[in-house]
Amino acid sequence: MTNNARLREESNKYAPGGVHSATRNVEPFHVFTKGEGAYIYDADGNKFIDYQAAFGPYILGHNYPYVNNKVIQALSTTDMFGVGTTDLEIEASRKIVTHVPSAEQVLFCNSGSEATYHAIRLSRGITGRSKLIKFQGCYHGWHDYVARNMLSAWDKIGTRDPGSAGMLDEAIDNTLVCTYNDLDDVERTFNENKGEIAAIILEPIPHNIGIIMPQPGFLEGLRELCTANGALLIFDEVITGFRHDIGGYQKVAGVTPDLTTMGKAMANGFPIAAVAGKKEYMQRFNTQPGGDVWFAGTYNGHAVGTAACIATLEMMENEPVHEHIFRLGERMRSEIRGIVDRLGIKAYVAGFGSTWTTYFMDFEPKNYTDLQHNDAEFYVTYRKKMIEKGIYKMPMNLKRNHLSYSHTDKEVDITLEAIESVLKEMTGK
Ligand code: PMP
């Protein structure tokens, strides 16, 4: 029995399914023991080039020394105090407010789900309205406000599709679902729910279904519709934030939301997230005397997360992090396009910056419904064969790959060679 299999059995005894988050129980199953730079290692000594990046946080690479050292240094003096603030919270906040256009003020929490929960509750507190618009296929966390119509089965698109048993009916029914890149659909939804919609929440690039690019005018149109209807625009930049620009995708797009949620790449793998936005809105949180929207958390602003955030943003300020990962991303996408063209494979290579996704379909998908044309079975075999070649990709169909500052042209060369060889084998060409 392999170590992976033995430890999996052991884990199954103690945790349901042997894993501690949905979507981790995937085949082939690995017990990971080490991460370093662009590589991860399992309990049987297998080594992989990692593009999963733990679902996105690793923008500098695993166990990045500059970040780890700052965390260790911070822990030798600061841990948690429970009242007041720390120099780490102040410095991390200052950096976010400096770089992210919509962030006039910021508050820290521990996960992306907490951040989206707080942003939505704040939008309801401000507007006195209950309803929320989200888009089919976008993911914003596990809580009742947003856990509906995520990666729905194809026959559930356009229907009421709760993501979990145990959700409150009222929460599900107050979340309206629109089609991404379809402004008419959003406008119609506003008109049918006049004066009732508190906010729109969206991933400005829906990375939870790969890389669907907002079509020209879509984000601008949402901005206008929100302003015209007195609703707040919330960009969930938990994946896009800091990965696509130190100012988030809002900086790239030139569209400023009212509220922004952040996480993942903001601290290169350490647990911290944030909600940020216009000062007049943020002042409604009860962290401000007289504030009436409840915001609290024992571990909020912990030294580990804030120190890691400061170090990660310092790296982006002082080194050509984005230049490097964008160049590798461009190279990866254009060479994969060359490979699929040469082999005559029906594929659309999507991407932005450090990310890419190969959809096995012959046109650019603009929304979740379009992804029905993607050959999921082909992807699953492709991924399995890539893992056998030492290239670790996202465990689910329709997800994206991430490059980090630790990846170099050498890893890209190895990956491209593996892609070509696997696709040749699969197509018999
Ligand atoms: N928003 C987005 C866009 C996400 O991708 C995720 C996590 N994948 C979340 C929110 C939730 O974050 P967390 O898992 O840290 O709660």
What characteristic shape results from the CA principal axes? globular
Low-confidence stretches: none
Main sheet properties: 7 strands, mixed
Please indicate the percent range of residues in DSSP E strands (runs of 2 or more): 5-15%
What integer value in Å does the Rg equal? Answer: 21 Å
At CATH's second level, what is the architecture of the largest domain? Answer: 3-Layer(aba) Sandwich
Number of E-type strands: 14
Helix fraction bin = 25-40%
**What's the structural domain tally?**
2
Measure the end-to-end span. Answer: 36 Å
CATH superfamily of the largest domain: Type I PLP-dependent aspartate aminotransferase-like (Major domain)
**Strands in their spatial order, largest beta sheet:** 4-10-9-8-7-5-6
In CATH, what is the class of the largest domain? Answer: Alpha Beta
CATH topology category name of the largest domain: Aspartate Aminotransferase, domain 2
Element string (H = helix, E = strand): HEEEHHEHEHEHEHEHEEHHHEEHEEH
Q: How many H/I helical runs?
A: 13
Rounded mean pLDDT score: 97
Q: Which ligands accompany this protein?
A: 4'-deoxy-4'-aminopyridoxal-5'-phosphate
Strand-pairing-aware structural class: alpha/beta
InterPro entries: Aminotrans_3, Aminotrans_3_PPA_site, PyrdxlP-dep_Trfase, PyrdxlP-dep_Trfase_major, PyrdxlP-dep_Trfase_small
Pfam families: Aminotran_3
GO molecular function: transaminase activity
Protein name: Aspartate aminotransferase family protein
